[in-house]
Amino acid sequence: MRQLTVTVDRFPIAGKFTIARGSRTEAVVVTATIREDGATGRGECVPYARYGETVEGVAAAIEALRPQIEAGMTREALQAAMPAGAARNALDCALWDLDAKRSGVRAHVTAGVTRWPAATTAYTISLDTPEAMAEAAAKAADRPILKVKFGAPGGDLERIAAVRRAAPGATLIADANEGWTEDNLAAHFAACAEAGFALVEQPLPAANDGFLGKVSRPVAICADESVHDRASLDRLVGLYDAVNIKLDKTGGLTEALALADAAQERGFSLMIGCMVGTSLAMAPALVLAPRARFVDLDGPLLLAQDREPGLRYEGSVVYPPEPALWG
């Protein structure tokens, strides 16, 4: 017989994580644990206020599905029973893990990934003053890919230039978190192009991103807040060059795999991203890493404390999980 356990776990962030919408000093995650026939499967999600989620609401949504989960609900049935989002992500990834533990077949094999090599992840530089961001970038300049947070009113042109001077050899990704506007978009695009940024992520609010079809885009553009699951994809053709797939948005690995297929069929390149969570949240997302142009799974690197056991990171290289962690 199955048993579902839902917990809220807190992990301190090393320092402070700041984006255009605010700062935080800890990662608050919801963990679903499903036990059956001596096997245990786990999934972690990060509720996100930007999408109307709260920790309490997500935990309650998982609890509400307890009868169906404990009665043997499958991953396929789960897709119809819950909408895309953090709650479904925790349950979906827990069911993937449980299936792997019970069958002895690793989750990546079930997902069709025959080779699961290590991946190089981007490393996040939080939003701050140009001087503070340059200092942070200089300390991380030996990392091959830096994802740099922008989107504060004023000062982003200086931030763009300052980070590039501090990390001249790094591949840079600009993430505005919906913080730029139609009026300043051209100037920010030009500054990113001049500084040699490889990608600009979600420059405009999702509700206003149709404007991207009206302007010159000298840098490749990636959708984040504008893309959740397959239903949100068609509208983005012609506006973006890439999509950021996050399991907390897709509602788990099941939909993420389908979204990756659909996105690549439409000509989008892929970024695999994350919220600030532990290795348990990164592990299932790594299944998609072999298909991605960019991998952004640095959540555990931003924490003062990760789960044990966690993923193995060597600098910016992250290795697939051992079965004791997930999958």
From TrEMBL:
GO terms for molecular function: metal ion binding; racemase and epimerase activity, acting on amino acids and derivatives. Its cofactor is Mg(2+). Its EC number is 5.1.1.-. Residues 130-222 form the Mandelate racemase/muconate lactonizing enzyme C-terminal domain. PANTHER family: D-GALACTONATE DEHYDRATASE-RELATED, ENOLASE SUPERFAMILY MEMBER DDB_G0284701. Belongs to the mandelate racemase/muconate lactonizing enzyme family. It is an enzyme of class 5 (isomerase). Gene3D superfamilies: Enolase-like C-terminal domain, Enolase-like, N-terminal domain. The active site is at K149, K246. It comes from Microvirga thermotolerans. The keyword Magnesium applies. This is Dipeptide epimerase. Keywords: Isomerase, Magnesium, Metal-binding. The keyword Cell inner membrane does not apply. Mg(2+) binds at D175, E201, D224. Binds 1 Mg(2+) ion per subunit.
